[in-house]
Write a structure and sequence with these properties.
18 strands; six-stranded parallel beta sheet; binds magnesium ion; binds thiamine diphosphate; 22 helices; globular
């Protein structure tokens, strides 16, 4: 098992040992290449593994116990599955060499994992160990990437067995489709169209340069998905923001209004970046994706091209050059810059009682290195980050997106720092999400990881409570109550900093980054002010309500008015 794992790009494994995997742990302990990391909870371990896959070319790997380890890890496995992140999940298994029932952890894991992984393997003999691990890895990294599960029964670990040979890992060559005809047609369509827009998802993560070159050639506005927020540089003059619906920032919404041909690459047009499917996509849609399943699901494509984003975009650029197709800038860059600056001014001038999110993100960008990695969670803070924080490099902003699982940020920041020790790693997390996995900071402390976690401490599950405010005029089960973040920092021996007002932003961020530089775990308690809504929240609420049947719309609005008047 470990000989196989050592041949793959694996730097760490995550998990908690138990009687079904201590043999593997003992072998990992001897490994010079792989470091096994003890986690506090396997759910956190899965997010750590996920973050390694997102921010490096390595694959995040778990070694956990059967049944209970698996159910704890499911949240992270689910996130990796829906976000298309490769992961190896290895668990021990109950003994297959005894005739006893009701063994410890005896439970059919495969039936649950079947729906949340690309494939599951149950190893039956020693000869299957190496090929199963190699197969699992190849499946995890190919096509639409995702997690793969391997169960290895305890008896195969405890007892000796002969294997025919020690295998050497061989990479599978990907089959490259011939898309010549479709590329030619796409270029024709681009050439005939007046204004091109580009919409980029996580699938473009290795194709940033190509995306930049093509967008400049076509003078097209570029918007991204949330998960793919990093694939196009945030400081580029053609970058508009996340999505292009009424749930997007004005720069995006305006720049895409008159787009008559959209090139969408490495995206599935899922709910978040389309503003709950409110985005209007032109008839001339060129959709490029590695997974042909995603075509024509939410928006009908005129030309669908199956393939890896980098390969297809290379071909597309070649053809654009050959046909000498380009578009002029008709004041687009200026308009984007103006919309962005006006939006930021709106935030800057708003009267906040506590910390102004815009000033926070502006200063954070100022203080961070260009290659700092930002990790977010799910909540209001996520959309604030996407609207107000500029990310500069691909795979340097990561977020739990389509499974949308709270509790991601702290463990994912840990995985990110383990795999990127020389880069600054900062997490931005809501207080509710922090409470779910915050004790994982102990794992950071144990490994002397200099990470900074900014907790947006508003006392609410805000992304949901904001949505309750108008329709219900009640905040049911979304109030967290008072808790002392300092107590948690003390418990895990982390540095604690309190950020109370705008005047403390600069000094607190500086101090936090300084602590992290000397390998200290830092928890910053941010007295954030959430009174101003994001465009995302306002836009999505409007879009969803618009699509309600008339009678329900009336009922909802009627109830809101009644509760506003009567309380
Ligand atoms: C595991 C899980 N439970 C519930 C939700 C629903 N949900 C989405 S955002 C959110 C609020 C998050 O609150 P907090 O972490 O405090 O962040 P804030 O919105 O206040 O920034 C909730 C409850 C979810 N996405 N994931
Ligand atoms: Mg909160």
């Amino acid at each position: 098992m470990v000989k196989a794992l050592e041949q793959l790009p694996i730097s760490h494994t995550f998990g908690v040992p138990g009687v079904h995997n201590t043999e593997i742990y003992d072998e990992l302990n001897k490994s010079e290449k792989i470091t096994p990391i003890l986690v506090t909870h396997e759910g956190g371990g899965a997010f750590m593994a996920d973050a390694i896959s997102r921010t490096t070319d390595n694959i995040g790997t778990m070694v956990i116990v059967p049944a209970a380890g698996i159910t704890h890890a499911l949240s992270g496995i689910g996130e990796a599955f829906l976000d298309g992140i490769p992961m190896l999940v290895i668990s021990g298994g109950i003994r297959t060499d005894v005739d006893k029932k009701y063994q410890l952890h005896e439970w059919d894991m495969h039936s649950v994992l079947k729906g949340i992984t690309k494939k599951t393997f149950k190893i039956e003999n020693h000869n299957q160990i190496m090929p199963s691990i190699f197969d699992a890895y190849n499946i995890a990294i190919s096509g639409n990437q995702g997690p793969v599960f391997v169960e290895i029964p305890a008896n195969l670990q405890l007892f000796k067995g002969e294997v025919d040979e020690i295998l050497n890992y061989e990479k599978v060559e990907i089959e490259i489709k011939n898309n010549n005809e479709r590329i030619k047609k796409a270029v024709e369509l681009i050439s005939e169209s007046k204004k091109i827009g580009m919409f980029l998802g996580w699938g473009c993560k290795e194709a940033t340069e190509l995306c930049v070159t093509i967008s400049e050639k076509l003078n097209s506005p570029v918007s991204t998905t949330l998960q793919g927020y990093s694939v196009f540089p945030g400081d580029h003059a053609l970058h508009t923001g996340m999505g292009f619906s009424e749930a997007s920032v004005p720069a995006s919404e305006n720049a895409f209004k008159d787009v008559d041909c959209l090139i969408a690459v490495g995206t599935r047009f899922a709910e978040i970046p389309t503003g709950s499917f409110g985005a209007i996509v032109p008839e001339n849609l060129i959709h490029i994706d590695i997974d042909p399943d995603v075509f024509d699901k939410n928006y009908k494509s005129k030309i669908a091209i199956e393939g890896d984003a980098k390969i297809v975009l290379e071909e597309l650029l070649k053809e654009l050059n050959l046909q000498q197709v380009s578009k002029e800038d008709k004041g687009l860059k200026e308009a984007i810059a103006k919309d962005k600056s006006n939006y930021f001014k709106e935030w800057e001038n708003h009267k906040f009682e506590n910390v102004n999110p815009y000033l926070f993100f502006k200063e954070l960008r100022n203080k961070l290195n260009k290659d700092a990695i930002t990790v977010v969670d799910d909540g209001n803070h996520t959309f604030l980050t996407a609207e107000l924080f500029q990310n500069l490099k691909s795979k340097h902003f990561i977020s739990p997106t389509d499974f949308n699982c709270m509790g991601y940020c702290v463990p994912a920041s840990i995985g990110t720092k383990l795999a990127n020790p020389s880069k600054q790693v900062v997490g931005i997390v809501g207080d509710g999400a922090f409470l779910m996995t915050g004790l994982e900071l102990l794992t950071a402390k144990r490994n002397n990881l200099g990470i900074v976690i900014f907790v947006f401490h508003d006392g609410e599950l805000s992304q949901i409570s904001q949505g309750q405010e108008i329709p219900y005029n009640r905040k049911t089960a979304t109030q967290l109550g008072d808790f002392k973040l300092k107590g948690i920092a003390d418990a895990v021996d982390a540095e604690y900093l309190l950020l109370r007002t705008d005047s403390e932003i600069e000094s607190t961020i500086s101090k936090a980054l300084e602590f992290a530089e000397s390998d200290k775990v830092v928890l910053v308690d941010v007295n954030i002010d959430y009174q101003k809504r994001t465009r995302f929240t306002k836009g999505v609420v409007k879009t969803i309500l618009k699509k309600f049947p008339l009678s329900d719309k009336v009922r909802f609005i009627g109830r809101a008015i009644k509760r506003k008047v009567l309380g």
